[in-house]
Amino acid sequence: MKKQIVLFVLIFFVSISGLLAQGGGMQRQTSEERVKANMEAIKPLLLNEEQTKKTTDVVTDFVNNQQKLMEDFRTNGGGDREGWMAKRKEVEDARDAKLKEIFNANQYKKWIEEIVPSMRPRRRN
Question: pTM (2 decimals)?
Fold first, then answer.
């Protein structure tokens, strides 16, 4: 019984120290980190070198445009959420149109059905 109590206390302190070490707040990724993460998500498409270069350019433009939209939304106090969502959708549609020209039919289908949904941020409860 004594060993169980000691083990419980030890686990409790390890858990608390792990939570405190996280820093509490979410850090935003840099543009380069977001491009890298997007390109990692695209790896299952098995792109050739030319497709990879073109896709990297498209993803970089998308990330920069999306970041600019987010900064504008934050500086305006976040008032017009519907307008911001419409602009974001336009940027996503432009990205998808460019990628459709780069990918073959099977790659684009996999992009739309599997990769895009997996890249969306998950909401916390």
Answer: 0.67
| Spatial CA neighbour of 63 closest among 45, 39, 43 | 39
Give the CA distances from residue 121 to residues 26, 27, 116, 117, in Å, rounded to whole numbers and listed in that order: 13, 14, 10, 9
pLDDT at 26: 58
Cα–Cα distances in Å, from 119 out to 24, 28, 38, 103, 113? Answer: 23, 15, 8, 18, 11
| Amino acid present at 13 | F
- Tokens, residue 92: 């996503």
Instruction: Report whether pLDDT(7) > 60.
Output: yes
d(C-alpha 88, C-alpha 70), whole Å: 9
How long is the chain? Answer: 125
Residue 65 and residue 82: Cα distance in Å, rounded?
17
Side-chain half-sphere exposure of 112, counting CA atoms within 13 A: 11
DSSP 76: T
Q: pLDDT tens across 79-118, in order?
A: 677 888 888 889 889 999 998 999 998 988 988 888 888 7
